[in-house]
Write a structure and sequence with these properties.
This protein is mainly alpha-helical and 156 residues long. It is a multi-pass membrane protein.
Length: 156
């Protein structure tokens, strides 16, 4: 019988404890490195778009959001999705590291299915959304085109 996805499965750890703790540490570092890579991708994407300049609106507008170049406004949601992936990876890595460490001290090992599946789904959706927003920003809510009032332009 195959174990359920949502049932916590604990198996006995009968090997070298030092080896298992070192493997847990390497796994933590790999997950952390992936999370930091997502955060760096977010910062790099924002920097690449913000250095490009773009049109600016008049400084007479009070709205600070309008002073940002349009290209930067388009890329900010994508950057936030990538940064959220980084935070998710770092949070998962930390939680998983301490959970496995505590179980190894008890002579057990917890097989993690739910957290890994949730993290994979979360980062997949976020990454696809970020790429979609970059490729076609007009299809998403992030680029609000100003409504033009035809009647007002006729009167002055």
């Amino acid at each position: 019988m195959r174990p359920s996805l949502f049932v916590r499965e604990v198996v006995k750890n009968t090997g070298s404890t030092a080896r298992d703790h070192l493997a847990n540490e390497r796994t933590f570092l790999a997950w952390s490195r992936t999370g930091l890579s997502f955060m760096a991708a977010s910062a790099g994407l924002f920097s690449a778009y913000s250095l490009g300049g773009g049109e600016r609106t008049s400084t007479s507008d009070v709205d600070a959001h309008a002073l940002l170049p349009r290209r930067v406004r388009e890329v900010v949601p994508s950057c936030l999705f990538l940064a959220a992936n980084g935070v998710a990876f770092l949070g998962f890595a930390t939680k998983h590291y301490f959970r496995v460490m505590n179980e190894l001290k008890r002579g057990n090992f917890v097989i993690n299915r739910t957290g890994l599946g949730a993290l994979t789904a979360f980062t997949s959706v976020n990454t696809l959304a970020a790429i979609g927003m970059l490729v076609s920003p007009n299809r998403f809510w992030i680029v609000a085109k100003p409504e033009r009032n035809e009647d007002a332009s006729e009167f002055g």
